[in-house]
Design a protein that fits this description.
single chain, 992 residues, alpha+beta, six-stranded antiparallel beta sheet, five-stranded antiparallel beta sheet, 25 strands
Length: 992
């Protein structure tokens, strides 16, 4: 849609390169659509774009011709190898020009001269639009902006063709445009001068003939016929705007009261008709005129020069210029095609030879290099042959190395098999421990099945997960009816649903009470009263995953308490909190009553406790908490429930669970508390033993997990060590073999420049002393385009020097990385290692089709050389930088071009001394690492990348190199959405 709108605007804002001859550039957009989307969409867009030509020229035939041009080019692009300019030339030669001539002759019936001008203008306009489109496609990134899939590679021949054509056509077109402007100005000045001269002559003649009577019209006729002009002139004798006499008789006067008048000086005016008329048509119907007024003359003399004859002369001039331009275009297309073919032919042959080079080298297939007289291509062919022979030798060495590696893999596999056997024994031991855990869980399940309390478990949707037999007896629903359903909707009365829901929500948020007494509904419809003990189930991550409930049916207990309430307040209250023993205390906190069973719980008799405070025998650590609960219950006059420890006369620690209710006198005043207490020592000891057992099993599992991690680290070290050793040897060999021919090329470039300067000096001297060579030499000079070679050859040598320098830098980096398996430490410059790592990763830092280039910001401090293993530290830098690039690629894959431009992807590298250590920081502005993953990133084989894109060993090996090999420290800091930073500390002097 954007291109279609641009095309419509290109037609709307037409450009008058020649006066009155508008050039339309809307076809540029439609040709781009044809190139990107095909003939169908291009034709549809052309219909929309060219609708404006109907308004502009008043007929639809031009729109048809331009639409056919787009259809022709779209089909031609799909079915031939020609580019836009030849296809456009073929269309106007075979279809456009003949069809336009037929339309303008037989349908519109316009003059032949105008037909010729229109056809030539359309022809030239079409070729110019095709050339502009070609230049946009090849030399700009517009298509890549529209869509990344249109970012293509274009033949070098097409770029040469476009350049030659543009440098030929555009200057000629500019000269013609300037000439046409001068021609138009000359014609207009000549018309103004003619009218002015005639006006002066009329004034002089009228002064001479004053003795004659002014009413003699024959004298007026004689004066008019005596005048001569290069253009036909109309003369009118006016009386109050009425024509008295005119010459010639066929002349028609124009309406001075309408139209547009422009003063051209010397009392000469230019009259043009009004209305929305084309500029050329308006000028063709205009007149240059002046009015002669003489004293005593009863009439006015109007001298008018019609512009129609000048328009014909201007059109003839345009036709000649456009014909010349069209001829030059044809010659330029032919010459550009021939020259580009001859220049690109040796490169094409070299491309065919170098295609599928690894297969040719490995199969020792012979190749034929191009035979050319161009020195650069000859040297390029020789260098290619030298490198290919070197690669052939390296392929043989790699094959031998492969066989050695396969033998080593067999040996390592045997060692791994032995390690796996040891690991299998460890796994059997772990399975035995898990079996013991299962037995413990079975005992716990048996206790749940046989307890008289209803034990239930709910998930986060309040669906039943566990339902023991006691729950079946209390509520009447079988386990298969309850499990998997929201049984709470059946056992809770409607009026209590909101309250129960609030209790559950508070439990999930870990802020509600665990004990509650509620009214529930039995399956048979009767209502029962149950006491609930609820506990939220929390996973290791601190998240609530469900609720465990223990329930006791206290309906009968409540009913008994209701029956006794009227007869005895004391026994009614005590029955409400009945337990192992009963008790009462006053507001001073001293016992006023205890039952005989208190000895079984506390170890003290009734007489030992009456009049004493419970705090006297309470464990000192529990006293503040119990005192706070009693204080709160007294202030709120509420019930309470608590657990605490007591110290028996024998010094034994016992547990009890105490339930208490407020005790009021007959006037309703609080006089103390009463309740029941239950000994829970056995239960507490069982819970402690269970926790201890679980801790022991957990410790054994952690030991097994630690052993497994050590085995994984050993395995990763073996694999990585072998891989990096082989890689170092291979990289060192390849770098050495490439370095020799590169040095040969780089060293000979200086001599080549000197030889070229001498040759160019000889050529210049020859051309100075022999400016007119013999015809064969002249033909060869024109065919070789010596001017271009003289200008381009030094630039080509500079490009070759820059390429050789770049290869030498890459070779130096490869040789640096070939030291990965060095066993001894040495003094090394960390900045060189970082720069070499960036050199290896330069291709990944460059701009790609889906993101902009990644900017690397170096903030190097003044750090000394450190005692280290340089190859291993290079591996660390390479791993961290590669991960940063991966993180930025992942982030940019989800961002728009505008977001990438506003917040570009960057990597910051900072070094600084820190006492006897050196600090290296590598930070990116990617998506960051979640907190739950940051603690495991250094584990072996842990990776967040898709299968096939990461082994999970990079950061694990990095950690081992920094911490274990260099006694250093590495930390990872990350925030989601802000990026990740790795901070490395390495001692300057290695600790042995």
């Amino acid at each position: 849609m954007g291109l279609t709108l641009a095309g419509f605007l290109g037609n709307y804002f037409s450009l008058p390169l020649f006066f009155g001859v508008d050039f339309l550039f809307g076809s540029v957009a439609t040709l781009l659509i044809a190139y990107c989307f095909g003939a169908r969409w291009a034709t549809l867009a052309a219909v929309i774009v060219n609708l404006y030509t109907i308004i502009l020229w008043g007929h639809p035939y031009s729109m048809i011709i331009l639409d056919l041009e787009v259809l022709w080019v779209g089909l031609g692009l799909r079915r031939s190898s020609l580019n836009l300019v030849p296809l456009t030339c073929l269309y106007w030669l075979s279809v456009g020009a003949p069809l336009g001539a037929l339309i303008y002759v037989f349908i519109l019936k316009i003059p032949a001269q105008l037909i010729t001008l229109v056809i030539l203008k359309l022809f030239v306009n079409g070729i110019l639009n095709a050339l502009i489109t070609n230049l946009i496609i090849v030399n700009t990134g517009l298509l890549g902006v529209l869509d990344t899939k249109y970012k293509r590679n274009y033949p070098f021949r097409q770029a040469i063709f476009n350049g030659l054509l543009a440098f030929t056509i555009i200057p000629v077109l500019l000269l013609i445009i300037v000439g046409s402007r001068f021609q138009f100005e000359g014609l207009q000045n000549q018309a103004i001068k003619t009218v002015a001269v005639l006006s002066e002559e009329f004034s002089e003649n009228l002064n001479i003939t004053r003795e004659y009577r002014w009413g003699d019209l024959n004298l007026f006729q004689a004066l008019i016929e005596a005048k001569r002009s290069p253009y036909p002139v109309n003369v009118f004798l006016l009386n109050n705007s009425n024509v008295v006499k005119k010459y010639p008789e066929t002349a028609e006067i124009f309406d001075l009261g309408s139209g547009v008048m422009e003063n051209k000086g010397n009392d000469v005016y230019h009259w043009k008709p009004g209305g929305s008329m084309a500029i050329m048509a308006q000028w063709q119907n205009s007149h240059y005129y002046t009015i002669v007024n003489e004293a005593g003359l009863p009439w006015q003399i109007l001298i008018a020069l019609p512009a129609q004859q000048m328009v014909r002369q201007l059109q003839q001039f345009y036709i000649r210029n456009l014909a010349v331009l069209l001829a030059i275009m044809g010659i330029s297309v032919f010459c550009a095609n021939t020259i580009s073919y001859r220049l690109i032919q040796p490169l094409r042959q070299l491309t065919e030879v170098s295609s599928n080079l690894p297969e040719k080298v490995s199969s020792e297939e012979p190749w034929k290099l191009p035979d050319t007289n161009i020195l650069e291509l000859t040297l390029l062919s020789m260098n290619f042959e030298v490198m290919a022979n070197a690669l052939r030798d390296r392929f043989k060495e790699i094959k031998q190395t492969n066989e050695q590696l396969e033998q080593r893999v067999v040996e390592r596999t045997q060692r791994l098999a032995e390690i796996n056997q040891t690991l299998a024994a460890e796994i059997q031991e772990r399975q035995r421990i898990e079996a013991e855990i299962r037995k413990s869980q079975q005992r716990l399940a048996l206790m749940v099945e046989q307890t008289p309390l209803a034990v239930m478990e709910w998930n986060m949707d309040f669906e039943v997960v566990s339902w023991n037999p006691a729950a079946e007896e209390i509520f009447g629903y079988r386990a298969e009816e309850a499990i998997g359903n929201r049984i709470v909707d059946l056992i809770v009365p409607p009026e209590c649903v909101d309250y129960v829901q609030q209790v559950m929500d508070d439990l999930i948020e870990q802020k509600g009470e665990t004990l509650s007494t509620n009214e529930n509904i039995h399956k048979d419809g009767r209502r029962i009263i149950c006491q609930w003990y609820n506990t939220p189930l929390i996973n290791p991550a601190g998240e609530c995953i469900g609720i465990a409930s223990m329930t006791q049916d206290i309906t009968e207990q409540q009913r008994a308490e209701a029956e006794l309430r009227e007869s005895e307040q004391r026994f009614r209250d005590v029955s409400e909190a009945a337990g192992e023993y009963l008790w009462e205390i006053d507001l001073d906190g001293c016992y006023t009553y205890v039952s005989e069973r208190v000895r079984e719980v506390k170890g003290y008799g009734v007489r030992d406790l009456l009049g004493r405070s419970p705090f006297d025998i309470m464990h000192k650590e529990d006293r503040p908490r119990v005192q706070q609960i009693l204080t709160q219950a007294t202030a709120e006059q509420s019930t309470f429930k608590l657990e605490h420890r007591n110290v028996t006369p024998d010094g034994e620690i016992v547990w009890e669970e105490v339930n208490g209710v407020p005790h009021f006198d007959n006037q309703g005043h609080l006089v103390g508390f009463r309740g029941a207490a239950l000994g829970i020592t056995a239960r507490k000891r069982s819970e402690l033993e269970l926790r201890q057992s679980e801790a022991q099993l957990r410790q054994k599992a952690e030991e097994l997990e630690k052993t497994l991690r050590e085995l994984q680290q050993t395995q990763s070290q073996l694999v990585q060590s072998e891989k990096m050793s082989s890689l170092g040897q291979l990289v060192a060999g390849v770098a050495h073999e490439i370095n020799n021919p590169v040095n040969f090329i780089y060293g000979n470039l200086t001599h080549a420049e000197e030889y070229v300067e001498d040759l160019l000096a000889v050529i210049a001297s020859y051309r100075e002393h022999y400016p007119e060579p013999v015809e064969p030499v002249q033909e060869e000079l024109e065919a070789s385009d010596v001017e271009f070679l003289v200008e381009d050859f030094p630039q080509l040598l500079n490009s070759m020097r820059e390429g050789a320098r770049r290869i030498r830098e890459i070779v130096a980096s490869l040789r640096n990385f070939s030291r990965l398996d060095e066993a001894e430490s040495k003094q090394a410059n960390l900045h060189e290692g970082i720069d070499n790592s960036l050199m290896i990763l330069r291709s990944r830092l460059k701009e790609t089709s889906h993101r902009r280039a990644i900017e690397v910001i170096r903030e190097y401090g003044e750090i000394p050389k450190i005692d280290c293993y340089p190859g291993q530290l290079n591996q660390v830098f390479l791993n961290i930088l590669a991960n940063a690039i991966d993180a930025l690629d992942e982030r940019d894959g989800d961002r728009s071009p505008e977001e990438m431009r506003e917040q570009p992807s960057c990597i910051w590298i900072r070094t600084q001394p820190q006492g006897d250590r050196v600090l290296i920081s590598i930070r990116d502005n990617g998506n960051g690492i979640p907190d739950r993953l940051r603690e495991t990133i250094f584990n072996p084989f842990f990776t967040t990348k898709p299968v096939g894109k990461g082994t999970g060993l990079g950061l694990s090996i990095t950690y081992q190199i920094i911490v274990e090999r260099h006694a250093g420290k590495i930390d990872c800091y990350s925030r989601l959405g802000e990026g990740t930073e790795f901070a490395i500390e390495i001692p300057v002097t290695r600790v042995t």
